[in-house]
Design goal:
Strand content of chain B: 15-25%
CATH superfamily of chain B: Glutaconate Coenzyme A-transferase
Radius of gyration of chain A: 20 Å
Number of domains of chain A: 1
Structural class of chain B: alpha/beta
CATH topology of chain B: Glutaconate Coenzyme A-transferase
Distance between the termini of chain A: 47 Å
Number of strands of chain A: 11
CATH topology of chain A: Glutaconate Coenzyme A-transferase
Strand order of the largest sheet of chain B: 4-3-2-1-5-10-13-14-15-16
CATH architecture of chain A: 3-Layer(aba) Sandwich
Largest sheet of chain A: 8 strands, mixed
Structural class of chain A: alpha/beta
CATH class of chain B: Alpha Beta
CATH superfamily of chain A: Glutaconate Coenzyme A-transferase
Helix content of chain A: 25-40%
Number of strands of chain B: 16
Shape of chain A: globular
Helix content of chain B: 10-25%
Number of domains of chain B: 1
Oligomer: heterodimer
Shape of chain B: globular
Chain lengths: 317, 272
C-alpha cells in the first residue's frame, strides 16, 4: 500500500462535519473513542446525529457540549458510576435534543442490516411496548423522515408471510456517515484486531460510509496478517487510522486499562446543570490536547488503572 | 435449605440477592444484567446451580468470571468463557430461544408487569429522561422467564407506567394500542414472561391466565396489608404462601467473602 491511512487527531475530527451522523465503538463505559470526542468538542462541531447501539459517557459529553441535535439509541448512563444521562435528560426536557428510542436488540439488528447492505431487519422484540407507539415517532413528528438518511417510517408492522409465526416489525437499517472506533491494535493498512468482547464494532465499521480507527498502537500489517484468524475487521473497511494511547480514558479498554470510575462519578455529579458541565469542560477539555489531558490526570492515576496483561483487567486486591 | 442466618446477620440487599439466586435452576441459560443480579447468578453458580450458563449482553457466552464484573461490558466478563463475541450474537441467541431466565430492573411497574425505564411524565414532554430501554424489553421478549428486582415505593408500583419500556403479561397491540394478552402478540415466539418481582418488601408472581400480579411472600417484618398499601393498584394478597426465606450462612459467606468482598453491589451489615 502506497497510500497511507494515517491521520492526525485534528484531521480525524475534521472528517466529522456539522450535521454528520455518527457512531462509536464500545459498550456503555468500555472502549469509547474519548480523545477524539474531546477534539470534536474543542472544534465545536454542531448538529450531530448520534446513532448508537448504546450510549454512554461519550454521548453525555457531546450532548452536554451542545454538539448533538438527534440522539437515536436505547440507553445512556454511566453504569455503576452514574444512574442516568443527566445532560441528555436536561436537553431533552428543554427540547434542545430530539431522541428516537429503539430497543437494544433493534439497534443492533439495524446496524446488522446496514452492514449487510439490506434496507431493513425483521424482529419480534419489544412487541407491545411504547417503543412501537406510533405517537412516539419523534423524528416523524419533527418532519425529519426524508427517506434518504432518515427512514420514511420508524417501524412497519407485518405478519410473518412465510411461516405464519405472527406479528413482526420491520426496522430500518441505520445510515451512518462516520464510525469512530477505539481499539487495541490496528495495522498501517487498516486491519483491526480487537481484544476482548467485540460489542458491536464489526457491524459499525461495515455499516458506516467512513470508518476511522483510533488505536492504542499502530502495528505492522505483516504482524497482524501472520494470524489473520485473530483479526476482527478487514483492512478495506477502514479508511483512516491514528495512534492514541489511553485514548478511551475515562472508559476502559480490555487488556490495557480499567474504567476510571472516580472520573465518571465526578462528571456525573458535577454536570447536572449546564453551568456545571461548562465548568467541567473548561477544566478537562478546552485548552488541552491529549498529552495535556494525560499530564493533568498524572502518572499515579493512570498506573492505578493499568490492566494486568495476564488477566486483562486490574485485579482489585 | 437449612442454617438460615438470623435477622441481625444480613441486610436487605442480602435477602434480595438470595431470593433472586433461588429463581435459577441448574443447567439453565441465564442472561445477566449489571448490578445485584450478577452477584445473584454467581451465587447460584456457587451453590445450587453449578451448571448454569451465563450470557453477558455485551457478548460473553457461558462466562465464568473469577472476579465480579462491574458491568456487562467489563473486561472481567470473558475470563473462562466458552466464547467471547458481541451483541449481535447475544441478541440472536436470545431471539433464537436459548435463554431460560433474565434478571431486570425498572423505575416503575404496573399490575401486569409492564416496566418503565425510559422517562418520568409524558414521553413527549418528560419531567425526567431515564437511561432508556437497554436490553430490558429484548430479554423480556425472548426469555422464558424474567425476574424484576425493584425498590418498593408507592410511586413505583403504579396503575399505569409513564412509558411501557418492557412488555408484561397484558400489553398494547400497535398500531392501534388495544390491550391484549402477550400470548396473542408474540404468536409462535411466545415463551413466557415476567415470572417474579422481588421488591424490597416482598416477592410477587403473576397469574399467567389473566396476567395480574399477586403477592407470594412477604419479607421478614412486612405484612400483606403494609405491602398492599405500597401499591397504587389493587394488589392481590389472597395467594400468599408465607415469608421470604432468609439467606443461609453459606450464602452470606459466598456473597461477602468470595463474590463481592469489596461491597460493589452488596453492602455488609454493620455489626452492632
Amino acid at each position: 500500500m502506497s497510500t497511507s491511512k494515517r491521520i492526525t487527531m485534528q484531521q480525524a475530527a475534521e472528517i466529522v462535519r456539522n450535521g454528520s451522523s455518527l457512531t462509536f465503538s464500545g459498550f456503555t463505559i468500555w472502549r469509547r473513542p474519548f480523545a477524539l470526542v474531546y477534539e470534536l468538542i474543542r472544534q465545536q462541531r454542531r448538529g450531530l446525529h448520534l446513532i448508537e447501539v448504546n450510549g454512554g459517557p461519550h454521548s453525555e459529553f457531546l450532548v452536554g457540549a451542545g454538539c448533538v441535535d438527534i440522539w437515536e439509541s436505547c440507553w445512556i448512563g454511566h453504569e455503576l458510576y452514574g444512574k442516568y444521562g443527566a445532560n441528555l435528560s436536561r436537553r431533552v426536557c428543554n427540547k434542545e435534543v430530539l431522541t428516537e428510542d429503539y430497543s437494544h436488540a433493534e439497534m443492533m439488528f439495524r446496524f446488522a442490516a446496514a452492514a449487510q447492505g439490506a434496507p431493513y431487519a425483521v424482529t419480534q422484540t419489544s412487541l407491545g411496548t411504547d417503543i412501537h407507539n406510533p405517537e412516539y415517532d419523534i423524528l416523524g413528528r419533527a418532519g425529519k423522515r426524508d427517506g434518504k438518511r432518515i427512514a420514511k417510517h420508524k417501524y412497519i408492522f407485518v405478519e410473518d408471510p412465510f411461516f405464519d409465526a405472527g406479528p413482526h416489525v420491520l426496522i430500518p437499517a441505520v445510515k451512518v456517515d462516520v464510525a469512530i472506533l477505539c481499539v487495541q491494535q490496528v495495522g498501517e493498512e487498516g486491519t483491526v484486531r480487537v481484544a476482548g468482547q467485540l460489542y458491536s464494532d464489526p457491524e459499525a465499521a461495515r455499516a458506516a460510509d467512513i470508518t476511522i480507527v483510533m488505536a492504542e498502537e499502530i502495528v505492522p500489517e505483516e504482524y497482524l496478517r501472520r494470524a489473520a484468524d485473530q483479526n476482527t475487521i478487514p483492512s478495506f473497511e477502514v479508511d483512516y487510522v491514528l495512534e492514541c494511547p489511553f485514548g478511551a480514558h475515562p472508559t476502559g479498554m480490555f487488556g490495557q486499562y480499567d474504567v476510571d470510575g472516580n472520573f465518571l462519578k465526578d462528571f456525573y455529579g458535577r454536570t447536572r446543570t449546564q453551568e456545571g458541565f461548562d465548568a467541567f469542560a473548561a477544566e478537562w477539555i478546552y485548552g488541552l490536547d491529549h498529552i495535556g489531558y494525560l499530564e493533568k490526570l498524572g502518572w499515579s492515576r493512570m498506573l492505578n488503572l493499568r490492566a494486568n496483561t495476564a488477566l486483562n483487567y486490574k485485579p482489585r486486591n | 435449605m437449612s442454617n438460615y442466618a438470623s435477622p441481625e446477620e444480613y441486610g436487605l440487599a442480602d435477602l434480595l440477592c438470595c431470593a433472586a439466586s433461588r429463581e435459577v435452576q441448574d443447567n439453565e441459560i441465564v442472561f445477566a444484567g449489571t448490578g445485584l443480579p450478577m452477584v445473584a447468578i454467581m451465587l447460584a453458580q456457587k451453590t445450587h446451580a453449578p451448571n448454569l450458563k451465563l450470557i453477558f449482553e455485551a457478548g460473553t457466552l457461558d462466562g465464568r468470571p473469577p472476579e465480579l464484573p462491574t458491568s456487562v461490558g467489563d473486561a472481567r466478563c470473558e475470563s473462562g468463557a466458552s466464547r467471547s463475541s458481541g451483541l449481535y450474537d447475544a441478541f440472536s441467541i436470545a431471539q433464537r430461544g436459548y435463554v431460560d431466565l433474565g434478571y431486570l430492573g425498572g423505575a416503575e411497574i404496573d399490575q401486569f408487569g409492564n416496566v418503565n425505564t425510559t422517562c418520568i411524565g409524558n414521553y413527549l414532554k418528560p419531567e425526567l429522561r431515564l437511561t432508556g430501554s437497554g436490553g430490558n424489553p429484548d430479554i423480556n421478549s425472548f426469555a422464558k422467564r424474567t425476574v424484576f428486582i425493584m425498590v418498593h415505593e408507592k410511586r413505583r408500583f403504579v396503575e399505569q407506567v409513564s412509558y411501557i419500556t418492557s412488555p408484561g403479561w397484558r400489553v398494547k397491540k400497535w398500531p392501534g394500542g388495544e390491550w391484549v394478552h402477550r400470548r396473542e402478540l408474540y404468536g409462535a415466539a411466545f415463551r413466557g414472561g415476567p415470572s417474579a418481582v422481588i421488591s424490597t418488601a416482598g416477592v410477587f408472581r403473576f397469574d399467567e391466565t389473566d396476567g395480574h400480579m399477586y403477592l407470594d411472600t412477604c419479607h421478614p417484618g412486612k405484612t400483606p396489608s403494609e405491602i398492599k398499601d405500597l401499591c397504587q393498584f389493587d394488589l392481590d394478597v389472597s395467594r400468599i404462601t408465607g415469608e421470604t426465606a432468609p439467606p443461609t450462612r453459606e450464602e452470606l459467606h459466598f456473597i461477602h467473602d468470595v463474590l463481592d468482598p469489596d461491597q460493589i453491589f452488596i453492602p455488609k451489615v454493620k455489626k452492632a
